[in-house]
Amino acid sequence: MTHPVGTTAAAEDLLRELAPQVLGAVVRRYGNFADAEDAVQEALIAAATTWPEDGRPDDPLAWLIRVAARRMANQFRSEDARRRREALAASWSVTVPEPVPARDDTLILMFMCCHPSLTPATAIPLTLRAVGGLTTREIAAAFLVPEATMAQRISRAKAKIKASGEPFALPPPGQRPERLRSVLHVLYLLFNEGYTSSSGPDLARTDLSGEAIRLTRSVQAAMPDDPEVTGLLAVMLLTDARRPARSGADGELIPLAEQDRTRWDQDLIGEGTRLITAALRRGQVGEYQVQAAIAALHDQAGSHASTDWARILTLYGQLEAMTGNPMVRLNRAVAAAMAQGPGAGLALLDGLGGQLGDHHRLHAVRGHLLEQAGDRQAAIAEFRAAAARTNNLREQQYLTTQAARLAAGPGPG
Amino acid sequence: MRFMLLQNYGEVESGCAPMTEWSPGDIKAHIEFQQALNAELAELGELVDAQGLSGPEQAKFVVWDGAGAPVITDGPYPEAKELLAGYRLIDVETVERALEIAARASAAPGPDGVPIQQPIEVREVLSAPDPEM
User: The domain containing residue A17 runs over which residues?
Assistant: First the structure.
């Protein structure tokens, strides 16, 4: 018996929800994560092709596991000698393995795909495929590379995991905090990747920040007591809430100070605020929680000027102490300028050149602060220097416009 | 990070003759080198695109003032050496890796297999906006 499929989008959502469970079941039965992942990808594609015509099977999970298992078996058959074949043939008749709770599979797969032997740039596409259930084509389109290139990247990532000898299980408790940090870092970068790419024909189809939120939600559901996981989810929601106001009609960047706050998503702000408030109560503050707390203060402010800059300044100080990241100092300088005047902000930038070098962001922030301090000529020079050094297009356009605005004559400065 | 590795028709550092004067075997070896490098980059998941462009003789230049008829000039162009001959678009994790690939491309074999030492222009492609902007 089959069911009507409903909308294509609903079918795709279902497939992607089931993907980690299917993969978990197949790996547990056959071992070999790399091949199993290929087989599951083929099963997902087969489902996307056949279900709309034939209707959805009664038990979609079992259907997917069966199809993926058959692919695995066929692959062995074409590769291996008869003895291996016979051994396997015996196992085919065994019923589909009992799936374990979905959250366990999601977690194990997340740890696996964000393995420390991988760089984030290779961990991200593998995570999207193995845990997110996206196709190679969708991932390639989202990252604007050819499908064949992306396929190679993913198979190389899997080869590295294989070489590491990682078992298909949760990392031992002693390693878990460190490994969780890798997972959260990959999810954070994935979110940023999606949040920053405001152009491209495939944006609506493969919404990377939406996918990052979905994956982080599933990790959070599996580890509800970890305040940093909750903190990361909160950062994403509180940041994503501003997306509708963040770019203009032509995709141009609108900085926080100039955004139309009525366009911010209040549901996301509400959920993110509840999450971060609960996480902070646990008293184990980490960097994602601090970032979320800062984002929440911005989201709750009625205007840029009425923002609680003093508290944001304190939080950035805390974040800088935790991470030692000179980029955090830049944000702290902006907050200091708002809370205590541009001189305080500029003072925090002194000496930062030693750490950041000739970084465009340092020039950009200095430009903003010099403008606030009324030093128009110096601000123009900094904005121009920043525009010449940035490696991103929208920022270059924004900075060039800032320099031109100041050069054109007295403004609301 | 994406980079364009650009090469033009200018002279190469080895001072070797233009390719049209090479032996067929040397030309074949050069082309095979380029294809092998592309295959290797694709295999590593780093190649986005690689194209060679038609020669300066076929180049056309178009200038329009927004009214009237556009002015179209046929090649050959007097500054042919400045024209782009081909490019690779790569997607790599570091600038160091982009430079490493550029170095490989620069040492493409010329006559008798001697590296031609072609200057490779390495340019980063501007990316999407920064999240913390």
Answer: 2-92
